[in-house]
């Protein structure tokens, strides 16, 4: 990162940075310096941004000469330019600099804050503007996408990404639902609602006929969503449909999407194009929504006891049918096993933490299931980049984090003063309750950098402490704002309930099992919650809700985050775009920092990073202790985090959130229905508010699924031709009688040996002889036999690359330092021998794919950012060059492993490394494969998402 700005410390803030009753906020400088504008602290450069659809070769977007800080990655600047810059491309009205974008948003917020009495003096308003600007350009946080789309433009200034609607048991209400949902989709946002008030198909209408039931009306809404999406949106419509578990049509609802999945399989086998985005997939229903069942404690207790459970009439609440609770629960789990729907929402837990129960219950959520509040309401989101708050000594700067939260919550609340809303009812509810959704991204990267495994007590303790600080500081600032600009309109009638929920958060914090390393964090959280309870009792609160954990898809890329939301790292290897075109494979840049934290030296770090670059995982990495493997566990790959590891992390942070968590628990393809049922049961017991699962390859409509073709049947009268069988046998190519050879002496951990290798006239390796141990010893005999076997294999055409792949990183004693400057550490004799053979006989490109470089190549890389010489590099086409371009300098101890492969995203890269498919759709904008982000998907090529941004 190239910047002249120093990392801030919370100690620079003035002690008067507190709310003063009726006099406005006094803002102290934390991130900025008096007399220096944030823009003047950083270097800026100009870049050309272009996007091409990898599938079609079609140019999607181009804008030249855009301006960004030099330390912003190409990917971040590309996504911001294509997604957030306003104005027609190619005109003077088009934004061309991050400064214009940030000014458009921040100045609007500051102006509204002044107009509505948030600041004590004009100087405080100016400091607020500068502080917010500094954090945005340094990628400390980001507002959700609608803010960047709309604020400061002539368009309606919609700032919310999440909406909850409502529908009653009348045709007027149902048709109004279609209309309101359509307008929300048209604006690029998503909505959720609960259909449980609609009468079931087992009940009568007032006219005497039978009701259609909610599932039938879902068809119309699904068709509407699909039409609006295809009419102009670049992503699938984001919507959530919820039905209470006691609704008489619950079984039909549960099985709806599973039955459609059966239809997809049948049509695929018949030769129809049923891939996601395929021309025939539109004939399948209910594919534009996420479905969730709202379960209550009564039902879950009946499941545990294997008891009966009543399904109730929508008109009078009477029980019209009884079912075996465990059977229904198993049907829910089976449907989720078949097609990943429905998810689960735990009604009593949700409403136990509800701050406004007097006004009404929480019945539904937004599409990604993190925002849960009143019907006809909305929430604007913002997320902090946690890795930015990690000090150089690898400890989390809690005080700096608190100051950042104060500023962000203030800005988010100000936005409601000028925001526009898609419907008047949503606007009225939001202005009356002022729901906010502060959250964070990069948790997985933060824990890794701190040397903590995601699925460990230490990792969960740190995550819980940070979440508690965030929500506590948010509500404390909300109480301070209430003293200045008043509590939210709905607070008075809900005051007792709101304060009770605050005490529940405080009690959860006080009862948390604290790891020794996190005591400092918990002391800050405890202080914040003490202030929340005290100030809230005095002032009330400005906001009914403060925090959620959203997917942070597009804005995560804007902040150059390695991980999104509460997720672990997706994979240890990623794609990085290069200035001027092209891309390269990189190893997660957090890994070297984590290895140093764990006590590894620079040579060990380089060797481990090189191994990860070649293999995509840490299993067998040279010198890496097995007890440290858990630090590098990921969502995908060889050491994927177990399903309950995800659930336990959600349970650790849930007590400190106002809303819920957007996250999908991934299970392997081999997972059973019973395992999914257990995940849903444990989610209830651990106090989660919602839970969704995904079993690998449970959906047919995926980009990599191949349509099966039925074999052609033989015509009965066809003449049977005699079978012709051609056999191909390997042919041995012997070495000439006189051939070039080389003898290499070596030592591994002090044990010496000799290797003689001979080559064909074209330079290809044809024979190897190894001399280890005394003549006549068992070791010498085994090495002679091994040498003959390898030599014969080479002469029969087995590629040397195959031997290198199999025998490098093979670990046994003796292992350790060698006397070879090109290979400083070897895991065994075999590891050394085949690395040496690769260096001697394989071309550079083949070695680069295997992550094997000579000492001179590694030294050249440190100096120039390229393993190849300038002469060789000059001969390469620019897009395929392995160099780091000017302005794309991100030196980290060997953390990059260039590779010229056909993948265009991290998801595709993981597929190429692991040989397994990532179940995710193709991006409709740029054609690359998206990757999971919370309960949604995100494209790291262009930033498009399938849900909340």
Describe the structure.
It holds the Pfam family TSCPD. Keywords: Cobalamin, Cobalt, Disulfide bond, DNA synthesis, Nucleotide-binding, Oxidoreductase. Catalyzes the reduction of ribonucleotides to deoxyribonucleotides. May function to provide a pool of deoxyribonucleotide precursors for DNA repair during oxygen limitation and/or for immediate growth after restoration of oxygen. By secondary structure, this protein is α/β, with parallel strands linked by helices. The protein is 38% helix and 14% strand. Among the domains are: 330 residues, no CATH class; 220 residues, Anaerobic Ribonucleotide-triphosphate Reductase Large Chain, CATH 3.20.70.20; 112 residues, no CATH class. Strands 5, 6, 7, 8, 9, 12, 13, 14, 17 and 18 form a ten-stranded mixed beta sheet that branches. Strands 19-20-21 form a three-stranded antiparallel beta sheet. A hairpin with a 2-residue loop joins β24 and β25.
Feature tags:
949 residues; alpha/beta; Anaerobic Ribonucleotide-triphosphate Reductase Large Chain; ten-stranded mixed beta sheet; three-stranded antiparallel beta sheet; 28 helices; 14% strand; globular; DNA synthesis; disulfide bond; oxidoreductase; RNR_lg_C
